[in-house]
Please model this.
Amino acid sequence: MAIVNKHFYTEDGMVDVETAKSESILCKIAADIKQNIQLVEHAGIPVIPPETKAMGELPDNDIISRYRQMLSNDFIIDVMLGNHAVNQKAEIMLLDETFHKEMSQR
Model:
């Protein structure tokens, strides 16, 4: 789930809140969430907790709506788009690369 936040990064930081709430970014996030959960399940790894597994079965519009709602909360905005997130860029990008490499080998 964390690696989908890669879509909030720019070359030199993070997107602004309005861009983060945009249809184009949130569609990518919804698609990646569903794809990543499917990859994990296809690899025979249980997806837990059940709420995470359920995210993979939601329509894209529901996932987009949930992210828009989260991005209306100042604490969540700070976590997803603030300095902490900026400092995690290398880690998130490495996790994304490692995850997809591992899943393609299974």
User: Anything to note?
Assistant: The mean pLDDT is 96.
